[in-house]
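Office hours follow-up: a student asked to see two folded examples consecutively, so here they are.
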Amino acid sequence: LKPRSLVLPGISANFGFVAMGAASRLRWAALVATAALGLAEDVEVYFGVGCFWHVQHELVKAEREVLNRSDSELTAIVGYAGGIGKNSQGLVCYPPRSPWGDYQLKHAEVVHMSIPEDKVKAVAERYWSLFVGKNRVDVQDVGPEYRAVIGLPGGYSSRHLVQINAEQAGNVDQEFELREGQGGDPDTLGEALVWVMDTAKFPFYQGEIYHQFHDDMVEKYTAEYHALKDAFVEKCLILPTGCNGDQGEASAECKDMLNKPPDAGESNTGSSSSGPFGSAGGSGQFAWQQQQQQQQQQQAQATTTTKPAAVEALQRLGGSSTGSAWHQCSQLCLGSEPAPCPAFSTHSETLEHPPSC
């Protein structure tokens, strides 16, 4: 084993279990044991391998065919992950259309999904089938934004990595190394390599609405597939990001979700009949928490917010003073310029956070 890189037994018949150090053997045994538990909760993951337009289309097919989901239950949306922070506006945007230096963030194009734990292997099989030899389909797309990545809770230490790795067998032409990503990692073109990211350290950022359910550069998809974008918008499953070309307002219906968060006793895992950002299940906390943060921001304009109170409020929403809650705040200000979150900007010095949020 290379330091912090993973080539698990399963595809290489001559991989010697005894060749692993004692610590590695114990770690492997622990991963196998926890993977065998078969818990039925949903796992929030993201996958990347080239342009996200093609990847989203293929993972929507996987949701329909492998998970037997109806259109109202689909969760695959495009976005960005695995880079280093946010741009000067507190956003993560499509680099070619961003005037705010997003290329320097080195995020990868990815597709986020919510998958039942007992179906991780089946979806992983579809992911590995997206590779052509060592490469992605769209070899003309070059750069770190097109690198191969897998994002999991716990990242390189996730028990699901064992299951995902096992599905290489029979689905790839050669073994891929799974290596722990450090953020802003280089392109994988020409290498049998996939970066593994911890979703807590490298969260998913929703991509612009105009990128959702888009034709690939080569393949053209059906009108039915394209219509999913409007359906997701109507149901508040995707929201304007505030990025260039995506600065619209959230609908009144979406804003009304502020008053309809999941009940305190409702589980945030398991299958959801309303898709990934509905009122229950999967990543259902995303939409209502983001909307609730916008309401907090509006209220903060009329009141003085101290550091302890503001940080506590963000932590209650599942974020932190430097974590995903700040990103959600900046996304939901929806094109407010030059500072996406003017209320928090007012207290940026107190909150020890950049003026952009």
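And the second, which I mentioned at the end of office hours:
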Amino acid sequence: MFASAVRAASRSMPRGGGQLVLFRRTKLTDASRATIAAGPGLDDFILGTPAAQADSPQTKPKGKLPKKPRERLPDWLKTKIPTSKNYNKIKDNLRDLNLHTVCEEARCPNIGECWGGEEGTATATIMLMGDTCTRGCRFCSIKTSRAPPPLDPNEPVNTAKAVAKWGLDYVVLTSVDRDDLEDAGSAHLAETIRELKKWNPKLLVECLSPDFSGNPEQVATVAKSGLDVFAHNMETVEALTKFVRDRRAKYRQSLEVLRLAKVAEPTLITKTSVMLGLGETDQEVRQTMQDLRDVGVDCLTFGQYMQPTKRHMKVTEYVHPDKFEQWREEGDAMGFLYTASGPLVRSSYKAGEFFLTSVLRERRGEAAET
């Protein structure tokens, strides 16, 4: 009877297409019914009850793994919200002159301390060439674009005006990367430094410089502009560079930039910064320190990487202050002129500025005597 039904169904199907699928009802045995009754019910699937998974041979979950909770910020990294009178004054001055700071753009945790200091000691790290970078490093919150707005020709003079108004003896400049410009902005940086020196010849100027894609002439343009401290950040160890920085920012290239600055102006103090907490090993940190000494870098700072937004790289580890102290001691033992190391230390940090001010003043005094 079953065979005749199949033949009848086959004759009724159109020629050249389709398949006939037949399902035959099977009567469940009492044992099968008992097994099903003991298994998971609809509620188990809705509520996610793991009872049915206990004896399952498949232990690896399918799909996305559950998100790892973010580590809580340790007490030693918590800072006060800035509210001082000086903080608001500096902010207003910057807005009036259409200037940007890396303090704001990079969400620096020390902004309250640096901007909120007493008259003559409060400072901000001015970010030149706009607030939009042509590179997209995975740790940085500065805006990115392949074609940022053109340079502001008044920026060098406005920067000198702002610094003169603050009455500083030491200022830190930094900038975005401008790979869209023929000279990567090196002439603009040099003009700003010369303008600062024109307004205040005694002013000490540190510039946290881009890498200019390793171009020796562009590095020399900045190094020979009257600068006192040439800084360029390594950011991380060699093994992590391709994961942390933009693909155009290379570890060996950054080392070469620091070397070229010394070649162009041997009296320059050179400086760099490395973030910790990205997954680096002790051996990788020590190798980086040795690489920096090999190219004559004078000053080194270590600070904790802080994830600026949820879109950026996560923190692998909150490094304990004792570990930072260990790196400071090792840096001093290796012969660095100055090693600043602490969770909240950044490349431009007031304690470092005070030390470098004394060193530079001493050098100038020696030069005057000879």
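Two things to take away from it. The CA atoms of residues 128 and 298 lie 24 Å apart. The chain has 14 helices and ten strands.
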